[in-house]
């Protein structure tokens, strides 16, 4: 997609309006991301850049959605989930929300691990680990908000979007309410954050899911979805996508990288530091995920800097 130039002065104008309405959320929006949103072609006139007023409105809507959806409290919920039941001073309603989020996290159905060749974080989605029936839609939505925000938090400098890779070997029956809430969150809460989504294999249930979602999608979103028929084809594609090529392909796509030591189908991974899980219900290796991603980001940025000093592109 073509990107138009955006001046420092234009970014400052946008930020001035955003900070007036949502001062406490401004750390969530980097200058690079604001510039990325502003630089895109305008949907009503693709030969032109988005007007500043349009970009400002889009970002104001993003911040409004974060407050309305509860996205601003998901990291707090995670910390509460590490506390033992009955902890003094913890709001019971907050604790129940934290328990529900924790239950969805413990399924290890979604996590951030590694990057693509441009440094974009990878969100891995394992649909066979999703519940057959979603009993708590808000908790499942909170799970996806949390992991999307983790990907954003762990981006190398200058990177503004992420990649989703889904193993759709077994897809539960679609929950229309959950699908609509997820799509609404992606469009309102994460504009221009999804670089691409790659999924395999393509089965009947996934066809049904897409038939429900496609009529609701903005025109710019649909081309980012890459549905691959067979897993073998995905294995070849991943070698070109993932930062370290074939070495980063997980075992469930025919590669050597074993994600199960951190994110098993049940229980706690064998390489997880149990003492960091707290005294609550959390079994998902959240702190380990953040630490591993931080190491990967530091290595990527160091390699990029070394290449730049050596005269590389």
Automatic annotation (TrEMBL):
SUPFAM superfamilies associated with the record: CRAL/TRIO domain (SSF52087)
Superkingdom, taxonomy of origin: Eukaryota
Signal peptide (residue range): none
Positions of transmembrane segments: none
A Pfam family that the UniProt record links to this protein: CRAL_TRIO
InterPro entries the record matches: CRAL-TRIO_dom, CRAL-TRIO_dom_sf, PI_Transfer_CRAL-TRIO
CRAL-TRIO domain segment(s): 112-261
Name listed for the protein in its UniProt record: CRAL-TRIO domain-containing protein
Classification lineage: Eukaryota, Sar, Stramenopiles, Ochrophyta, Bolidophyceae
């Amino acid at each position: 997609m073509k990107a138009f130039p955006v001046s420092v002065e234009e970014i400052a104008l946008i930020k001035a309006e955003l900070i007036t309405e949502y001062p406490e959320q401004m750390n969530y929006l980097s200058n690079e991301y604001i510039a990325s949103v502003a630089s895109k072609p305008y949907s009503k006139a693709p030969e032109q850049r988005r007007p500043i007023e349009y970009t400002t409105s889009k970002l104001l809507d993003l911040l409004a959605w974060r407050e309305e959806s509860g996205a601003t409290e998901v990291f707090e919920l995670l910390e509460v989930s590490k506390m033992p039941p009955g902890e003094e001073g913890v709001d019971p309603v907050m604790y129940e929300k934290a328990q529900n989020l924790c239950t969805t996290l413990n399924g290890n159905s979604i996590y951030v691990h590694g990057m693509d060749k441009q440094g974009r974080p990878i969100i891995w989605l394992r649909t066979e680990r999703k519940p057959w029936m979603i009993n708590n839609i808000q908790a499942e939505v909170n799970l996806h908000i949390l992991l999307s925000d983790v990907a954003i938090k762990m981006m190398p400098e200058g990177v503004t979007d992420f990649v989703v890779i889904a193993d759709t070997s077994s897809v539960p029956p679609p929950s229309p309410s959950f699908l609509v809430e997820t799509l609404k969150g992606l469009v309102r809460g994460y504009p221009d954050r999804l670089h691409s989504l790659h999924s395999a294999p393509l089965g009947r249930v996934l066809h049904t899911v897409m038939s429900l979602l496609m009529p609701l999608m903005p025109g710019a979103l649909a081309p980012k979805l890459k549905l691959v028929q067979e897993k073998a084809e995905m294995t070849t594609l991943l070698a070109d996508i993932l930062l370290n090529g074939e070495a980063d392909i997980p075992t469930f796509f025919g590669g050597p990288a074993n994600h199960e030591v951190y994110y098993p189908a049940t229980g706690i991974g064998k390489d997880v530091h149990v003492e960091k899980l707290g005294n609550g219900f959390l079994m998902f290796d959240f702190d380990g995920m953040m630490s591993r991603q931080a190491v990967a980001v530091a290595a990527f940025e160091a390699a990029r800097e070394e290449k730049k000093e050596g005269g590389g592109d």
